[in-house]
Design goal:
- This protein is an all-alpha fold and 70 residues long.
- It has one helix and no strands.
Length: 70
Amino acid sequence: MIFYMEKAPYEAKAAKRKSEYEKQMASYNKKQESMEDDAEEEFDKKSEVHDDDEDEDKEDAEEDEDEDDD
């Protein structure tokens, strides 16, 4: 019985640390998920911008062809 009494403070401390760890991990995972969502949105925006750039390049090429016809 003395063994359990000696062990009790360490078990309480371990339980407290485990609880804090789980809270920190939940917060971290939530932050990671939001960062992934932001990264996906940023990728989508870059894709849209990239598409616009391609359209502008096509227009520029057509304008160059028109100038050559003169």
